[in-house]
Specification:
The structure is a single chain. Helix content is about 50%, strand content about 15%. The protein contains 17 helices and eight strands. Helix 5 runs parallel beside helix 7 (about 110-130) and helix 16 packs antiparallel against helix 17 (about 320-330). It is globular. Bound molecules: hypoxanthine and zinc ion.
Amino acid sequence: MNEIIEFIKKTPKAELHLHIEGTLEPNLLIKLAKRNNIKIPFANVDEVKFAYNFSNLESFLNIFYQGSKVLIKEQDFFDLTWAYILKCKEENIVHTEVFFDPQTHVNRGVNFDLVINGIHKALLKANKEFGLTSKIIMCFLRHLDEISAFKILDQALVHKDKIFGIGLDSSEKDHPPRKFERVFKKAIEKDFLTVAHAGEEGPSEYIWEALNLLKVKRIDHGVQCFQDEKLVQKLKIDQIPLTVCPLSNIKLRVFNTLQEHNLKKMLNAGLMVMINSDDPAYFDGYINKNYIETQKELNLSLREVKTLIINSFKSSFLDKEKKEYWIRQV
Ligand code: HPA
Ligand code: ZN
């Protein structure tokens, strides 16, 4: 087999942009719908897969939030997370930083505590059984208002020991980061690190807002940064990580094809980028497929692939010693 593909598969990697609800595979979705007696508009796995044909972020989110309705009990969140953990093992992901969207669940009557406990227990077991390390990042849904975000932040405070950071996701257009400046300020006062989706579909100004107003340590996606040369310089000088998700960008038509993706341009510009899977069950590809297809279509060299993987550790929230350990392994 191709030497670079072999390298991608066997090398330890960190994943920094992964929505746990986005790992809900069609077969688990059907199983949980039955187990919880939830009506879903799909009779079988093929029908689910057929529905996964998106024209933009909004059309994806509609189906994504529908799918999440089968998650009701702590065991469901545990099973969901455990299934992703088994993928991590298969794909040589040794460290993962997972997003979860509590408002998606709490707003349909599911208790916050059971959501976080299910996810956390699975990650704890994975750490004990095979050393997978992880951080949990709670995202606010940006299409909802500031009051809703404040309420969910209050609920998160009780679980400060389990939740490492705060993020921002959902529909980007017309929901600028500045809408959440005050709630992010409170989160920072409470000692959470912050990240935000910005410049996925939305304009480069949203990346500036995320940096300047939300004080983020990383930008999720950020592929629209080339609209503004000053911004590119800022991202380069400060080495702000951009958690790029190539297959997601194709499925949501941010780029028409992988060959047109600007990841290589970002690398050449000296930006701190790496590859992630975003919502792998919906975009048909976990991290290795993202690396392998991108490598092929953009003709990335072994050195470039190595840089991306090293960047995944550099950009993580691991401590300095663990980062150095994994970078030596790569
Ligand atoms: N963008 C915004 N919100 C999301 C995404 C995404 O790629 N995936 C899950 N929620
Ligand atoms: Zn995302």
